[in-house]
Description:
Elements: E1 9-13, H1 18-29, E2 33-38, H2 41-54, E3 58-63, H3 69-83, E4 88-91, H4 106-134, E5 137-142, H5 155-175, E6 180-187, H6 193-206, H7 210-218, H8 230-242, E7 252-255
Parallel strand pairs: 1-2, 1-4, 2-3, 4-5, 5-6, 6-7
The structure holds nicotinamide-adenine-dinucleotide (NAD).
Nicotinamide-adenine-dinucleotide binds at residues 13-14, 16-20, 38-40, 64-67, 92-95, 115, 142, 144, 187, 189-190, 192-195.
Amino acid sequence: MTLTVKDKVCIITGAASGIGRAIATRFVEDGAKVAIADLNKDAAEQTAKELASKGPGQAIGVAMDVTNEEQVNQGVQQVVDKWGRVDVLVSNAGIQIVHRVEEFPFAEWKKMLAIHLDGAFLTSKACLPHMYKQGAGAVVMMGSVHSKEASPLKAPYVTAKHGLLGLARVIAKEGAAHGVRANVICPGFVRTPLVDKQIPEQAKTLGISEDDVIKKVMLGGTVDGEFTTVEDIAEVAHIFAGFPTNALTGQSMVASHGWFME
Ligand code: NAD
């Protein structure tokens, strides 16, 4: 059994930074053709340039706001025009906003659900027809331990990440007849700009030190007090994207240093 994304056309959203960038790096190293789709066009193009220069795969930058249906459709079409197909979608773009429920501004709640849920829906909707036509494809969604566990201050994030499990399971059931698989990756805390931003915010809201946010809130439940790394998550994405049979479809995998076990 060979597990590879070599020569596969992959669209990775939010790939100009953090986890998405690490997944793009892993896929290009394995010989994939990767579209770095991101809100930040300059960073997407810069990332693509860096990855393409190392090879052996290829990379292009694609400007895309995953909450905007027109931009999603245009971005996916741009990839199909260039490479003729879409084999893998990694729906990864995401942000974090933290407040207690009773203080959560409604506009921010809606923004969170739009990026995490509308983004996964719109990118899947745009890619699936191409995958169905080919009779093969893989959709990988970036969930979180918060797809299975709650934390204070993160109502829309936890709600949206739980929702991705449902969406992936529906795609696994609908896609099976067309050779399309769907999975969710559920990382624990990974040190990226998204997490770095939360440390002072949570310290302020919870009235504790930044060191306590890291040691107690973020890593207190792990078996070893360690952050999960972007490379750990890229490896799990590679497994789901490259797995050659339907055996794992519909499943989610938690990678969290034992913070959450099932
Ligand atoms: P990050 O901030 O490093 O990267 C997120 C990327 O998404 C950025 O490049 C940003 O420009 C892009 N983005 C934001 N809004 C977008 C939009 N509307 N359209 C297109 N691109 C957009 O964050 P990260 O930590 O790498 O997070 C990536 C994913 O992993 C997110 O879905 C996040 O919820 C999830 N996740 C992260 C952690 C963690 O601890 N870092 C844990 C579990 C899950």
